[in-house]
Amino acid sequence: MVKDLVCGMMVDKASPPAKTNYKGKEYYFCSKHCKEEFEKNPEQYLKKNEEGAGEENS
């Protein structure tokens, strides 16, 4: 399971409803809508996810 970076839902990596490739890495999404939102501004979601990961480790 992997986290949808747009909505935070957990997605089954084996059969995701949507996925995309950005800078050579696969990203998985719960829906086409979340995939499209990510593709509009991937850096925004990647930065948000990195900040969230830092908070969880504190």
Short key terms for the protein model shown above:
58 residues; alpha+beta; two-stranded antiparallel ribbon; two-stranded antiparallel sheet; 43% helix; globular
Report the span from N to C terminus: 23 Å
Mean pLDDT: 91
Q: Approximately how much helix is present in the residues?
A: 40-55%
Strand order of the largest sheet: 1-2
Runs with pLDDT <50, length 5+? Answer: none
User: What is the count of DSSP helices, taking H or I runs of 4+ residues?
Assistant: 2
Write down the secondary-structure element order: EEEEHH
What's the β-strand tally? 4
> Any idea how many domains?
1
Q: Using the alpha-carbon principal axes, give the shape.
A: globular
The gyration radius over C-alpha positions equals 11 Å
SSE-based structural type: alpha+beta
What percentage of the residues does DSSP assign to strands (E)? Answer: 15-25%
Largest sheet: 2 strands, antiparallel
